[in-house]
Fold this protein.
Amino acid sequence: MAGTSLNSIVRSRAQGLILADTSQHQISRSVFATLALCETKRLARAHTAAIHSLSIDAVQHRYVLSTGTDTSIQLFDLESTGQINPTRCVLAGSGHTNTVTSVEWYSVDNGMFSTASLDHTVKIWDAHAMTEASQFDLECRVFSQKMSPTGAHALIAAGCESPYIRLCDLRSGAFAQSLLAHESASMSVDWSPVDAYMLASGGTDGRLQLWDIRQAGSHVCDFGNSESNTCAHDGSINGLLFTDDGQRLVSAGLDHCARVWNTASPQTPTVEIQTGAENDKPRTSTTLSTKTVEMALTTATDGTTSTKVLFIPSTSTCEVLVVDVCTGEVITRLDAHFASVTCAAWRPSFGELYTGGADSNVVAWSMREVLDSTQAALRTNAWSDSEPDDNV
Amino acid sequence: MHTSIEDLVAELTTSGSETLDTDTVNQLKRRLKHDESDQAIIQTFQALQLALEKRHAQVRLSALQLANIVFCRSHQFRLLVVENLPRWFELVLGTNHKKLPAPVQYAQQLRDMAAEIYYMWVERFGNGYQRLVYGFRYLRFIEQMDFKRAVKEYKRKDPERIRARRKIRLEAQSEYLKRSLVSVQADYMRTRQSINEALDTLDNCFAILVPEIVDIFGSHGATAGTTNNDDDDGDLDEVLAIMAANRQSIDININPERVLEAEEDTENSAVFDVIRDYLRLCVQVYSPRVQIWKQKLDRIDDSAELAGLVDGLDTRISVAIEKCRDLGIDFAYMDEPRDDEEDTDEFEDAPAPVVNKQQRIRQVQQKRNSVFAMYGQQVLKQDPTYIEPSLLRDQHNHPQADIHQEEGPTNSVEAKLRETAPVVSYGADLEYWGQREVNANTTGLEIRHRFLGSARDEPMLSEAALDTLQKRAVYYQEPERKEIKACRAPLPSGRLCPRRDLVKCPLHGAIVPRDEQGQLKAGFLPEEEAEAPSSSITTAERIEDLNQNDVNALARKHQTKAKTKTKAKKPKLASTRKAKLTGIKRLQQTISRKR
């Protein structure tokens, strides 16, 4: 029912043609269908190469960190309008010496953030001074790192090129555990937002695994059909995201497919989403692709209680797909980047989406906005009077 | 609605000319201006998209120009372009490793123009369409396109900047004129006094020397029938007016010799001296100064008052100078330098030295010789210590002037030998002829070693060295080359046959004089009317039996037929075929690459 306007939905509900939850569902969908390129807000050009990771702080939803291939880390304050310049930054080359693959705010407050980079390190930074506070040396390229959003412990799970997932303990400054995860590399990790000790990891072998770090054996289960020995994905998994109720897990893979799993029943995915074009063949190259992808989900605070909307970058075009997680249908496609999109970050309660791509742009998207007079003036026809006026 | 929008767009994009045809463009504009439902805009966009997808750089160029025109005017069109921006980048800028199509020179032009146009779009519309800005960043940092030229062009053509520049220029101009007026005024105020003084003195002197006509009138007595008794000067005009009304006239005989008592004699010499002094002042100082003022005031608009005053002064000065001329004063005395320089403290307005541009250029071109500073100057010929380096003369031309027989044919053998002997100009070989032991140390100094002492023997030239000295170089003259003619018969490809031979071309027979088109020059080929009317082309059984002349005649006939068909050339699209890489082109390429 794409294209149904809000008015018609309300009218049908008033006439009793549709049920309450259906109408809620349709309303949320129509709201998200209006998501479009934000014309009133623009993040200033700060990166000179591809952007790999975005993170919006969990406390105030006000600051966004962006990093990428040019090794700089930029901090933007999202409260202002117009052109937003970075309030603080770590200059290129002064922190990490190679591509920064992942950045994440500390989940408890926004005084600290952590980054992982292809220069074999995971660094912890002080956000006020933008200086390095501590560092973990993993001796192989690090593709992703995450800390538990519950804040119960201070462990950073780092997925890197070695078969082990290493847990770095911030309190002691040393490594806490190593989980023998995948055959070659583990590209993405995510902590459950509900259980402080549940960790999901996906690797280049296509296996999606769930871990409980308190247990001795740690490994809880493998997603995917274990009888027929199929992996969760045909290719490597390069993006993982739990929904905020902890019940669903979204995994994005290089086989142009994203799967939504129910954590309670790991055998089959509940929903499959095509992220590539129809005729795309899965990328089964032997060389390691370091392209992790970061997805974003709307949260419960957004007011769209029954709908959870997933923002997932497409693998073959430069679009971002806006997908309903429960049903898997694509609500709309956002097309503004000029190269592949690598990360998405949703700003809850404000209804704004920020996406970063390989074209060094961080693009802002919003749902409804009011243009100011100069912008409105530019967006009108301007045929000059001197031009010929015949009706021939 | 005669032609559809697709046709208009197709016409504009395939014309092959550098700029779009204004009539067709206006037609399209008219159509789009009154398009209510945006249908026409959508059609234009689709037609332009098709044109841009064509694999010809000229078509894409024209399509881009047209797109620019519509982009600047229509909001809908802008939205459509912004939606398809990545594809447009690929088509006109060659992003994403896509190549722009042949022909090559137009491809480069396309890229440059696209950069300029896109920068202009970003500057003008970036605030309202954010994707343009995002695209610009992508082009600059990821594709690493250079926008410097585009920025320069934009700044140059920006109407606001042009207006600002013009304003500044006008302001500067008016400032200058104001200052000029002020300076002229100040000058005038300063020197007005002295000029008036000079002119008044001159007038007085003239009055002394040349009596007024009224006085003459008065002294000879009125012969006209005037009614008036008072004979004032002021009534003279009245009197004359009344007389003219009554058709009366006065005959006045003025004896010029008598009137002009202005001759130099002892009485008048003082007056004349004064006149001469002030005249010199007027001619050399005041008159040029007043001229300069006049020139300056000419350029200033609102200087009517001052201009009038200056004009008055100018007329007075010129009248005075005329009167001096009439008095017979010779102006030559002014060239002599004055003994007393009264006006040293007053700076005179000297006219600016007019340096002829040609002279300046000539001066620069005569580069100074770094070794001989006065080389080439004519003055040197008068210097007895200077010997002009004589040019090397051809050794075969020898001056025979000094050879003369002083002694008679005393030695007949010698005389005979002299007749047949070659006369050779003097050189090193004659100098050293026959010598066997030649001193190598020509400095005349004693060669002395620090430790080993003086050389025992004088160093001598080696045999080889002496041998070389006794040789004379004879330079070979290249013989005149005969020019080998080219065949120049017309080939089917349109060129002329380039084969060169003294006698005949293997394909076209004897090499005969032909004109620029390859046609035989009139009167060379022998008349063929005597031959059988049927040409060998029809009768020949084999190729060898073909008469070359008949083939030529046939070729000529075809050529003349083809010529009449061609019309005036109209611009068309350049060919996309790559030019063949000939040997010369390959060489040029390697040279340019090395550079």
